[in-house]
Amino acid sequence: ADADAAADSGGALAIGHQSGALAVADVDDGSVRKLPARAAEVQSLAWAPPRASGGRGDEKSKDTAVLAVGGRGERAVTLWSWDTKRARASLRGTLPLPKCPSHLSEAQRGRLWLCVAWAGRATIDAPSSSSSEAAAARANANANEKKSDERWLLTSSHGGDVLRWRIDLDADEGRLCVAPPETFGPPESAHARTVFSLAVRESAGGGGGAIATTTSLDKSISSWSVDAATRAWSACGLGGFAYDMDVNPERASQVAIACGDGTVRCLDVEDHASRGRGVVGDGGAVLFRGLPRTKATCVRFRPIDDDDGFGFDDASGSRASANSIAAVGLEDGRIVLVDAMSGRYAIQRDCHAGAVSDVRWITSPRGDVVLVSLGNGSVWRWTSLAVPEDRRRGGGGGGG
Asked: Where in this protein does the record put region Disordered (predicted)?
């Protein structure tokens, strides 16, 4: 069995397994703490963003992180509190998915992939096509004078739907979800098949709210306004199933997609948005192409780091940014570092014994940015990495 998903919060790495096992590992000392196992496969994990100061539970929650866990068998998202000082976990609540629509076929009902992502602070007065119950709940929230720390939690759902939950991180157990989940719309803009990956970024300038990007088994990618819960645009022609994607933290308009045909493709979100709403038949530029029939299973950009100790010199002799580096995991167990700006790459010498299921860049408490990869049931912390260089010279190097 493989570890299915990982998400980091400071030096803590959350790991989910196909068996339902959950654990949190410390990337500095390698210690592992197990959480109570779930009854179903873990498919996605996401740490909530840092808590807002001054909330109702500010004192008691400053050393507590919240972890969202998506699992297909339970058809629900579970929320866990992780005490960073005592290394203990407690179950905060469970968010069951809405009932499966009756129009879905039997095959579609059994093909759920439950991915989760946090989208920052919730906008209480956000426009949406929600039900009257959700609208009434928003009105009650506006009338509530108590200060709360409400966040958007986005999840996939049945038949290609994407849901938006408003979660109060300061609420007591059983009262985390402030309102019923809302489905992104309109209905005709939903994916035709199961949503397989979900990423969130802040819009350019930070004033336009968060933007969610989804990929699906229908081989398309869609961009959504989180506050309005509506689709901005959709693009097709990815060349294969999209297994994973990530947003470049240095260039928020750039999305990298790991595809089943062995390629990593880059889309410029702002370019697509400028063409207006609707479907665009453009799968983006090919950033990396692996061996035939070797899937690119995961991709993750290196986080922005002011101390650019991982940089390298480009052909012109100038210093290239480490923040444009993306780690790519392949089905054959290899790890590749790709420079999203130049297209150069380096294949690491060490190789997992099976498919790489996830890669993560983690900033340790000491401020170091390290790469962690999951494959064939093992977790590797990379101590040295070969940096991307000219393709004609090839990659090679590194150690896990």
From this structure: 126-150
CA 136 to chain CA centroid, nearest Å: 30
Question: Which residue bears the tokens 């068998």?
Answer: 73
Instruction: Let me know: does 199 contact 185? Beta carbons within 8 Å.
Output: no
pTM for this entry: 0.78
Which domains, and CATH codes, for the chain?
1-236 (2.130.10.10), 239-400 (2.130.10.10)
C-beta atoms surrounding 204 within 10 Å: 14
Q: Sort 353 into a burial class: Cβ within 10 Å, 0-12 / 13-18 / 19+.
A: exposed
Tokens representing 104 are 């879905």
106-148 confidence digits (pLDDT tens): 766 667 889 999 987 776 444 444 455 555 555 555 445 345 6
Cis link prior to 49 (omega < 30° from 0)? Answer: no
Residues 6+ apart with CB under 8 A from 45: 5, 6, 7, 14, 15, 16, 67, 68, 69, 70, 116
Interval 21-36: pLDDT, tens: 888 888 878 888 888 8
Tokens 């129009």 belong to residue? 103
For 186-229, the DSSP string reads -GGGS-SS-EEEEEEEEPGGG-S-EEEEEEETTSEEEEEETTTT
